[in-house]
Amino acid sequence: MNAKSTTSKQPGLLVIVPCGFKKIWSKFPDKGPTLAQDVYTGSPFAVNRAFAEKFGETWMILSAKYGLIDPAFVISRDYNVTLKDRRTDPVSTDYLRDQVMSANLQRFSKVIALGGKEYRLAVQQAFEGLSTQLYFPFSGLPIGIMMQRTKQATAENDPFGKSATGVPERLTDGTSNKSMRIKTMADRVGFQTADICRELHWWLAELPSVGFPYSEEALPMNGIYVLFEKGEQAHDTNRIVRIGTHTGNNQLPKRLKQHFLLENKDRSIFRKNIGRCLLSRDNDMFLEAWELDLTTRAARDKHSEAIDTERQRQVEHQVSQYIKLNFSFVLLEVPDKERRLELESKITSCISLCPQCGPSRQWLGLNSPKPKIRQSGLWQVNELHKTPLTAQELEQLKDGAVASCATC
Fold it and tell me: What whole-number distance in Å separates Cα of residue 316 and Cα of residue 349?
């Protein structure tokens, strides 16, 4: 069937979509009770929903808190529950089985379940012993590849993912098959830097993001920050535009404050680079003065007559406004200094070496007088094109962040 066909509802097919970490209340805290289909705002949920609405006679959401729910189910407020962490008190297998029977879901001859291995296991257990055929066409793939294949299947009217993955994985009934191996990133796909970069982007897109204003008290003391910029896309999601960390112990909140809140470009190369681009874009002669480093008292005394302090203040404020309006960031808590620096370098190199991570034509950084910024599409010049993150290291990074980040 070609990609132009639009009539693709499958009679007797139920599609089950996993919930997502990002919810509407993170952006609109005062939002009241909301339909479940509108609660989850992350990119993976949007991709999965499009698939479900196209192919399913009916579709449902598997929520870690509420179980199998109709898209029109009303969720009253924010919550943080995950199937990955039993300490968050996720829905039980017995409850899911009761939902299957009470909603007569066994009437569907086929069920396609999307999502990761935790959701696959939950669906298998919920339908255990029933004659319903369960399909997991993208199971075991890392999230970036999974979303790519799901979008491809939607575009090509291929609900079982045959064109993308070969014969779809399925169980002839709901019996849990523990011998069916969920393959890892490394042995399921021959990963290259672009694949790792895609997976990194999709994984980070599902973690909680921080915008402005933010509470310093809620930030971890040690870690890595990953910046996203409005209008910048890569791998069909928000593009990473900067990776940074800190060297001193317990200094992450202070470092973020220097970048985003304190109006002093000599304490933040990130701020200085933003100002360079704003001034260069506008052909502003103040760029020459902006380049001066006024950190020391001696430097301030030396250049006092060359600096228009009022103009300096205006540009600093302009930089702050641009940052607050255009940037958000994800934080990865990493207590060990050497580990932070290693990850910062490898993540940066992974993105700078990725052939699919270029900036948009409107990206402010293209006005930079620094060639490395223009060419890399990143707001930094260090740690580019070195040793990139490996698939195994990315999996280890993801595993280390599960307990604190991967909730839904």
Answer: 29
